[in-house]
Amino acid sequence: MGTKLVGDFFQRDIFIVAQELIGKQMVRKRKDGQQTYYRITEIELYVGEEDLACHASKGRTRRTEVMYSSGGNVYVYLIYGMYWLFNIVTGEVDNPQAILIRGLDDIIGPGKVGKQLELDMSFYGEDLTTSKRVWLEDDGRRYSFTKHPRINIEYAGEVWKKKPYRYVLNKLV
Fold this sequence. Notes:
- The chain is of the alpha+beta class and 173 residues long.
- It has four helices and ten strands.
- Strands 1, 2, 3, 4, 5, 6, 7, 8, 9 and 10 form a ten-stranded antiparallel sheet that branches.
- The chain is globular, with a radius of gyration of 15 Å.
């Protein structure tokens, strides 16, 4: 158990948030009241309209509207008609940035993460600082991480495909 992260944490540049996000705990409170804690082990950064892998590269749409909100909100979307992916909006209003959660503990892959968290469309726009269903905590532990290219974004072109915007938890420091 740790300290719940507040709005100021998320309302900073995506690269600062990402460096501090890796290794934090995600807490999911189920309908039956059970709380489950997960360590964030892998993330990917999507850095705005200029990032051709980012949904916001197509501009402001109904789907991406939450990305233009204040940092700390949840951006979920459905892929392959079956997997809800969990993203955390970062930064200031009208600066669309989001961090995709790719791994929690031994759960590897954003689709598996969404399934484990029992996500659905109702999480779209949820405020992580006030939510009673999902939030993030800092338990004081610090981790190192390695940077890698993002996965499955060939459509974005070579420049964006090669950016080291995937962070993988390494070890406790």
